[in-house]
Amino acid sequence: MVELSPLAPVFLLPAFSEIALGSYVLAKGRLSPMNRTFFSLALLAGIGSGLDLMVASLGSEEQARWAFRLLVFLLIVEMGMAYRLNTMVPFPMPMFVYGNNLMAYWLSVLGVSLIAAMSVGNMVSDDFGWVPASDAPFALLTMLLAIYLALLAVTFVRRWKGSKGLMKRQVITMTAALAIPAALMIAIMSLAASGTETPRVYGFGELASVLIVAYGILRFQLVVPPRVVEPALPHRSVPALVKGRAYLFEFATPDRMFESVAQEMSGGMSAFIIARTHPDQLRTAYQLMHTPVLWLAQTPGPDRVAPSNLQLLTHMTMEFVHKGPSVIALEGLEYLMLNNDLNKVLKFLGQLRDEVIVEGSILLVSVDPRTLTERQKAILERELEVMRE
Q: At 229, is the secondary structure helix, strand, or coil?
C-alpha cells in the first residue's frame, strides 16, 4: 500500500527539475562526453528523489526495505558518476587510482554500491517515513560519502596547479557544486544519529548541484574553444584555399599547413588548431596570442587532450565550426592512428569533413606520407584533396 507523504510535492519538484535540466544540457551537446555524463548524473538524481518519496510513503516494511536498498545503490552510483564528471571539467584528467580504466572503475563502483545496498536490514518508521533500524547502513554511507569528498579534494588540488585566472574560478565552482549533495546527506544523517528527526529530502542538495553544474557547462562551454580573429604571421606565400573544402597536406613537416592557416587567418578567418607540436612553439612562430591551440598529449592539463579521446575532439571541433566559417587544422594524424582504431579515426575525419563542407569552413590535415601504409594513404586521399610538392 502506498499513501503519498504530505511532502510529495517537495520530493517531486527536484526529481522533475533534475531530469529536465539533464535533458536540456544533453540536447545542447549530444556529442560531448561531459554533457552525456552530466545527463546520467541528473537522471540518477531525479530517480533518487523519486525513491525518497517512495521510502516516505510506502506502508509495508518489506517494500520500504527494498526501496531503501535501491536508493542506497543508486546513491553510490550517482556519487561515482559525479566523481567521473569532476575529472572531466573544466579539462579532462585521469581518475585517482584508476587512471583512464573506466571498466575497472565502474565495476568497483557497482560492487561497492551492491554491498552498501545489502547492508540495509530491518526498517522502522518515524514521522518522515522509513529508516533502517540499524545505524550500520548510515555509518557505511557516511564513510563512502567522506571518501567521495576526499576524492573531490584530491582532484581539486591536482587541477588547481595547472589552472589560472578564470579557470581557477571554474575549478572552485564546479568542485563545490559537486560536493553539495554529499555534504547535505552527511548533515541530515548526523542529525538523525543525534536523535533529531528531520525531513530526509536529499534531493534539494542534488538539485542545487545540478543547477550550478548545468550553468557552468552552458555558460562557460567549458571545452568549446573561443573564437577569435587575429592576424597570424605567414612566412611565405602559399596557394589560396577554397571554403567548404578539406585538404590533406602530404609533406614531411607540417610547416606548409601552418603557413596556409596563417594566410587564411590574415584574411579574417577564425582558426582552431589541434597539434602534436607544443602550442608555445606555434604561438612563437606565427604570433598566435589568442587563437585556440589544443595539444595532443597523454599528460593531463588545460588546452590539451589525450589522443584516444576522439569523442571530445569531435565535440570541440563540431561546436567550433557551428559558430561560423572557420579553419580547422589537424597536425598529428599519425599520433591519432597510433592510439585509436583506424576506422574510428577515419569516422572522426569523415564527420569533420562533412561538417566543414556544410558550414563553408576549411579543414586542413597534415601527415607525413612516409608514415602511412598504401591502404591508409589511399583512403585519406579519397576523402581529402591532396596538397603535395
A: coil
